[in-house]
Write a structure and sequence with these properties.
mainly beta; five-stranded mixed beta sheet; 4 helices; globular
């Protein structure tokens, strides 16, 4: 469904430390924007797409090309549950996906009156203190995922007609998001697989799984 910028006291070579997965480091600025700033753009993208075409509800990848532009291609998670999607992406595009994320806005949370209150809402510990995340590219894990957890800045958005996100269409609103994201450097031409999942388990309530998202993308880069 996200500024905290995490830096490292010991430099990490991500192309080596991450088992050759070419991922932009969490303190980098791909194409001039931080991870947090890109996460705001990811949500603006999601909010702008109508319900029937929204990639969050896409079972097979048919909506993967919706409103894609610029140097970075967005992939979607789910609003709960699994999805197996096939997507063709032009060569030279970086790829961003959310592993587990949340957002809070003023219109659907009218008691929230400040950016700090939005941040506290989006990063609610009852969710993020109990979540485990995993991401693999071509079977190779992206490591140190805790370091890819970021807030977005406060961002503006306009909700689409027919959206299923609980906001009246055309509503001008502001929000802050929080969550785990990865941005991959452009993949080589050919076939690739991206798999990411988030599992929320409340261990205070008989270890029940309250929410999960598990997505596999079969990517062809042309």
């Amino acid at each position: 469904m996200t500024l905290i910028t995490i830096s490292f006291s010991i430099p990490i070579n991500y192309s080596i430390a991450q088992n050759q997965v070419q991922v932009y480091p969490p303190d980098s600025k791909p194409y001039g924007l931080s991870y947090g700033e890109w996460s705001a753009k990811w949500w603006q993208w999601i909010y702008s797409i109508s319900g029937d075409s929204n990639p969050l509800d896409d079972p097979n990848g048919k909506n993967c090309m919706q409103k894609q532009s610029g140097p970075l291609w967005f992939l979607a998670g789910t609003r709960g549950g699994s999805a197996d999607r096939t997507c063709t992406i032009p060569s030279g595009k970086a790829i961003m996906f959310p592993i587990f994320n949340a957002v809070c806005d003023y219109k659907t949370n009218p008691l929230l009156k400040s950016e700090e209150e939005l941040k506290k809402c989006a990063s609610d510990g009852k969710y993020f203190d109990h979540v485990s995340v995993d991401a693999l590219v071509d079977g190779k894990p992206i490591q140190n995922l805790e370091q890819f957890k970021v807030f977005s800045p406060l961002f503006n958005f306009t909700s689409s007609t027919g959206n299923k996100l609980g906001i009246p269409p055309g509503t001008d609103d502001q929000a802050i998001s929080y969550g785990y994201y990865n941005i991959l450097k452009p993949l080589s031409a050919g076939n690739h697989e991206i798999h990411f999942k988030g599992l929320l388990t409340d261990f205070t309530d008989t270890a029940t799984t309250n929410f999960y998202t598990d997505v596999t993308y079969h990517i062809t880069v042309t």
